[in-house]
Amino acid sequence: MDFTPSKAIVTGSDSGIGRASAIALARAGCDVGITWHSDREGAEETARMVREQGRKAAVAQLDTTDAPACGDVVEQLAQELGGLDVFVNNAGINGGTMFMDTDWDTWRGTVGANLDGAFVCLQRAARLMLDAGRGGRIIAVTSVHQEQPRVGSAAYDASKHGLGGLIRTIALELADRGITANAVLPGEINTPMNDSEDQDPEAMDRPGIPVGRPGAPEEIADVVAFLASGASSYVNGASFVVDGGMLLMGPQAGSHLTSGDWRSL
């Protein structure tokens, strides 16, 4: 409970869940390393918002398909921040095709971005924490599809299943060194990845999600901030589903039902 983080890195933090997580961690007292892939202006805006909280921000480009070189970016940011207490693996790509239509390049591109690059960055972050000897928090933003597959997402589903399994293994191996590892599994969230960032989730009707709407990035960031804090000291190897109840319906039904008739007999 006495773990008080002050240095964090959030990958893919130029918008959406990554940006919201960076701001939440800054609000909790962390200097934050911010990464971007193609939206440098977005990353600089996130940095500005972190600095508004009175915290330091460091910005770097990160391409998780460029493994193992992408791990060098983690070390660079940690050096600029003066250490690393929390690493949030959020960078990744969405989309996909049916299994029989998935070509090798699509498969490798998706698994490379979401799993291979994540492995390198997570390992590099963990090594920095181990060398410092102060413990740490490792958090991966995966997906509800870590637990349940979706039609048309063969490579994406496999990558998220793999990342969830990797986090659980890290949790087993590093906990006695004071490093916990957990996953956050978002459902449908209003982000640029879902082409809906500018819409108000409260005004969007989702009959197939029990709470009746998509989520906001801040609702994921709140869980990330908890897992990064001392209050999560006995939480390890957990997968926090943050989806408004979508998995209770099945992710296919949750996003495809067009009527709320299921709510009554």
Structural write-up:
The chain has 265 residues and is of the alpha/beta class. It has one domain: 3-Layer(aba) Sandwich (Rossmann fold), CATH 3.40.50.720. The chain has eight helices and seven strands, in the order βαβαβαβαβαβαβαα. Strands 3-2-1-4-5-6-7 form a seven-stranded parallel sheet, sandwiched between helices. Strand 2, helix 2 and strand 3 form a beta-alpha-beta unit. Helix 1 runs parallel beside helix 2, helix 1 packs across helix 6 and helix 4 packs parallel to helix 5. The chain is globular and about 55 Å long. It starts with 6 loop residues before the first strand and ends in a 9-residue tail after the last helix. The mean pLDDT is 95.
Secondary structure category: alpha/beta
How many domain modules?
1
Outline, from the CA principal axes?
Answer: globular
CATH topology: Rossmann fold
Strand content: 5-15%
Overall mean confidence score, pLDDT: 95
Known CATH architecture: 3-Layer(aba) Sandwich
Order of helical and strand elements: EHEHEHEHEHEHEHH
Biggest sheet, spatial arrangement of strands: 3-2-1-4-5-6-7
What is the CATH superfamily? NAD(P)-binding Rossmann-like Domain
Note the total helix count.
8
Query: Which sheet architecture does the biggest sheet show?
Result: 7 strands, parallel
CATH C-level category: Alpha Beta
What is the helical fraction, as a range of percent? 40-55%
Which spans have pLDDT < 50 for at least 5 consecutive residues?
A: none
Distance between the termini: 47 Å
Based on CA atoms alone, the radius of gyration comes out at: 18 Å
